[in-house]
Each structure stands twice: as C-alpha cells, then as structure tokens.
Amino acid sequence: MPGSEDAFDDYDDDRPRWRRLVVIGVIVVMVAAAGVGGWLWLGRELPRPATFHAESTSAFYAAIDNRQNDASPLTLQEVFTSATQTLGKLGLAGTREYAECDEALWGVTAAGCTQALQATYEGGGMAGQFVIFNLGDGRAADALVAALRKDGFVRQDVAFEAAGSQAQARAMGHYVTVSWAGGKAIAEQDLLTALVALDGLGRVVQGRLVDAV
Description:
Layout: H1 4-43, E1 51-55, H2 76-79, E2 86-87, E3 90-97, E4 105-106, E5 115-123, E6 126-134, H3 138-150, E7 153-154, E8 166-172, E9 175-183, H4 188-199, H5 204-212
Parallel strand pairs: 1-8
Antiparallel strand pairs: 2-3, 3-5, 4-7, 5-6, 6-9, 8-9
C-alpha cells in the first residue's frame, strides 16, 4: 500500500518514546502511593496506655546521676535474673537488647541513650513488658520521662489490649524504666498487681546505686 512503509517507520520510531512515557507514568504513581503510605505509617499514633504514671529522678539517686559514675553496661542476665522468670501470674516470654534505643520508642527519642533492655511477659489473661534505658545523666532521664507523658511512648512488643492498660515510668539517676501491662476483661486489681511486679524489675538500679556509693 502506498505510504504504508512510511507509516510503519513512524510508528516504530515513536514506540520507544511511548514506552518511556508509560514507564515514567508508572514510576510517578508508585512514588505517590509510597508517599501516601509512608505518611499514613509515620503519621499515625501507636498504642498508648489508658493510665500512665511518671516519676522524675531525685536526690536519692545522686550517686548514679551521671553515667560516668556507673560506667559498666547493663546485661540481660543482670536485669532479668532466674528469680524473675515468673512474676505472679506472668511468665517470662522473652528478652531483648535493642541495637538502638529509639527502636524501642515511637514519637520520642532517647538522647544519649546507649542501651535499651526489654522483657515481655504473659499469663493469667494478661501480658506486659518492661524496658530499661541507660541514658547519660539524670537530666536526659527526666527529659525522656517527660516526653513519654505526651509525645510518644514505648513500642508495644507483646499482644494485649491497650485500652484499659496501665503503665509506669521512672527516672532513677541516669536510668529510665517503663512498665506496661494490659489484658481483656481483667480485674483492675489484678492488672495493678501485674504492673507492680513488672515495675519491681527496676530493682536492678538499686544494686547499681549501692555499688556507686
């Protein structure tokens, strides 16, 4: 057919350009979707406890107000001993040391933190977790506790109902401990007992205090 060869050549020349346009369009859509997905993930709030109590450090912990006076890192074995395998109705489910302290948090940062050690517990229709942060000094510890009040919280690493859950954070010298317990259809007294037991894991700080005096 007259002119058919020229028409074919024109189509063949345009084909790479059309392919580029299609590829660019797909990339634009993917980038836009990733941006929306990232905003939804980063912008949403993660679970917080229904009841939260926080305490700043005090003069009682003056001997360990600075990490320079208490330089040895904590160990999982030191914090979570054989005596803490069970806490009342709760049984130890696992322990973990975070490579970066902020991995244990959302919405806040632990400036100057060198360690975050965690244990999770389950049992009696409840579950809970305990985290201890090793910060530079008492000011940094107080700053983290203050941020936990309103800006963010520790990441929930064991399944329980956040609604109705209770948590406790303490700054003790250059350490911060966070205990958090929850459960579905659990009596408030049972939940409080579990929280007190988890909070008791912070006694490791008392040992550090005695060694530093």
